[in-house]
Design brief:
The complex is a heterotrimer of chains A (131), B (127) and C (249). Chain B has 127 residues and is mainly α. In chain B, 70% of the residues lie in helices and 0% in strands. Chain B is built from four helices and no strands. The chains are: A mainly alpha (131), B mainly alpha (127), C alpha+beta (249). Strand 1 of chain A pairs antiparallel with strand 2 of chain C, so a sheet runs across the interface. The complex binds protoporphyrin IX containing FE, iron/sulfur cluster (2 copies) and FE2/S2 (inorganic) cluster.
């Protein structure tokens, strides 16, 4: 018998509580995390593009840097985020309009299958084409 | 009796319809095409991957590409702003804070779009 | 049937006036048939009479024993301890509703949202002759299925952060009225759910449908409401109906 063990304070936002979650609950959390990641990327991306106004040398130096492996790893993560969020977004749009609601789990796995193929292809393309 | 007792204490701002989710979904579907083309065009077309300075200028000076990228910019910004709004609204802000959120996000989105158009224009005219 | 074992029950405790909630752990000997509810009643009887919990029917119809068992929303009366993995069972009250004490939450907000949508339907269902579902229409059994247990509200990530969110149970009830109005004002019900904190707030996590012990499928109901609202607002539909399907409030 153990009395009085304090309930720990929650350290994460309520929507991020993953205990006892099912596929679609995880899908929602991942959709939100990738969405936020993509917004962050969009902001950084727009900011970096300003180098294009600072002449050829600045931009080409950046592109040389962007082709190094650490940046390619970041690009790979970006591809994952985009592909997941986009394909899950197709499902959310359909289901959210009342289409295919009862098939939403099957739809999720089919889309994720397609996503895996796209992810492998694009990652392979990224690492082999970049020179 | 009011049919919305759970809103009785809430200010009127909560009672309006809100179909921004639909805009989020529509812009999302548009992004499927816009983003796919953007990614392929910028990562996989030019020999060696990402575009160098000359490649970018050549790319953007094509009128169709220019318009396409601007449309992409607008759609992605609207989608992103609505997405952030949706996450913030989930935190149950007061109507005042909600108005502030709407205002700030509108401003940020407008700034991002204007900046993007300006940037594309400058790059394009360097061709 | 004699196969007994001892399981540790880690029970969420809170008393009004206390600053923070805590866990008490009790050893309970269980048989393969012991339910979590029975184990909790045993704890109350033998170890700590001050343990607060709600229950009534013991057979999944009153909806009062909803709680989180190892983080998962369940009805304690039909959850066998043996079906839960591990030697330790953590029992917590439903989330997203105010705690009154220990495992008891305040259902007032739940009913404030649910009742205006659904109660008329439930009350009259047994008495109205036209309430008989026609042959082959199984969807008519839906709302009557809802036992108002609140599991769906507890699991919903949106209810977790937006206190004004109408929530899965109330939205499912609203959809039930739209499906079978029985004299209710459908446009008005639709107007009530067509809000930023109504059916458009849902993020389609579908957790509600996964935990509902009564197959109400609130997630599908919410999607059906959205579909209905969107179809109503299609421009060519609007003309047909001679104006907006339901006037904005
Ligand atoms: C490529 C195609 C895309 C599709 C089909 C898509 C689709 C969607 C859909 C349907 C939602 C609503 C989800 C919900 O109601 O919970 C959503 C949310 C969101 N999207 Fe996208 N999206 C796409 C791309 C993007 C991009 C490029 C960004 C970032 C710039 C982005 C950022 C977000 C954010 C931040 C949210 C809010 C997430 C949340 O509420 O949890 N999306 N997306
Ligand atoms: S489908 Fe909607 S109502 Fe149901 S748990 Fe998910 S967010 Fe909540
Ligand atoms: S919809 Fe299901 S989970 Fe929600 S209150 Fe009704 S019976 Fe319980
Ligand atoms: S005691 Fe009635 S549902 Fe569990």
């Amino acid at each position: 018998m153990n009395r009085g063990e304090l309930v720990p304070r929650r350290r994460w936002p309520a929507w991020f509580d993953v205990r006892g979650r099912h596929v679609s609950g995880w899908a929602f959390i991942l959709n939100r995390l990738t969405g936020l990641g993509l917004v962050l990327y969009l902001i950084i991306h727009l900011w970096v593009l300003r180098l294009l106004t600072q002449g050829e040398a600045r931009w080409n130096a950046f592109i040389a840097l962007a082709k190094t492996p650490p940046f390619l790893v970041l690009d790979t993560i970006l591809f994952f985020g985009i592909i997941y969020h986009a394909l899950n977004g197709i499902r959310l749009t359909l289901v959210g309009l009342g289409i295919g609601v009862s098939a939403h789990k099957r739809m999720f796995w089919v889309l994720m299958g397609i996503g895996l193929v796209l992810f492998v292809l694009s990652t392979w393309g990224l690492w082999t084409m970049t020179k | 009796m009011s049919r919305q007792p759970w809103l009785e204490d809430a200010p009127p701002a909560y009672r309006g319809g809100d179909r921004w989710w639909l805009v989020q979904a529509i812009t999302g579907i548009l992004l499927l095409v816009l983003l796919a083309v953007h990614l392929i065009a910028n990562h996989f077309i030019v020999e060696g991957g990402l575009r160098t300075y000359q490649d970018v200028v050549a790319y953007l000076s094509h009128p169709f590409v220019f318009v396409w990228e601007i449309v992409f910019l607008i759609v992605v910004t609207v989608h992103a702003a609505l997405g952030v709004r949706s996450i913030l609204l989930d935190l149950g802000p007061s109507p005042r804070v909600e108005r502030i959120i709407n205002g700030v996000l509108t401003l940020l989105a407008a700034a991002a779009i204007s900046y993007g158009i300006w940037l594309s224009w400058v790059i394009r005219s360097q061709g | 049937m004699t196969e007994q074992r001892t399981v540790q029950f880690r029970v969420f405790r809170y008393k009004q006036g206390r600053e923070r909630p805590w866990y008490d752990t009790f050893d309970v000997t269980v048989t393969p048939r012991t339910t979590v509810l029975e184990a909790l009643q045993f704890i109350r009887r033998v170890h700590d009479p001050s343990l607060m919990l709600r229950h009534s029917c013991h057979h999944a119809s009153c909806g009062t024993c909803g709680m989180r068992i190892n983080g998962q929303e369940r009805l304690a009366c039909i959850t066998r301890v043996h079906d839960i993995a591990g030697e330790r069972v953590t029992v917590e009250p439903l989330a997203n509703l105010p705690i009154i004490g220990d495992l008891v939450v305040d259902m007032k907000a739940f009913y404030a949202k649910f009742t205006p949508m659904a109660m008329p339907l439930i009350r009259h269902s047994e008495f109205l002759p036209e309430a008989e579902p026609p042959e082959g229409v199984d969807t008519y059994t839906r709302l009557e299925n809802c036992i108002e247990c609140g599991l769906c509200v507890s699991v919903c990530p949106v209810a977790a952060s937006d206190p004004l969110y109408l929530g899965p149970a109330a939205l499912a009830a609203a959809w039930r009225v739209v499906q079978e109005p029985r004299g209710q004002n459908v446009p008005e019900i639709l107007a009530q759910v067509d809000t930023a904190h109504g059916c458009w707030r849902c993020h389609i996590a579908m957790e509600c449908s996964a935990v509902c012990p009564s197959h109400v499928d609130p997630g599908a109901a919410i999607m059906a409401l959205r579909g209905t609202l969107i179809r109503q607002h299609l421009p060519w539909r609007r003309k047909q109906q001679g104006g907006d399907a339901h006037e904005p409030r």
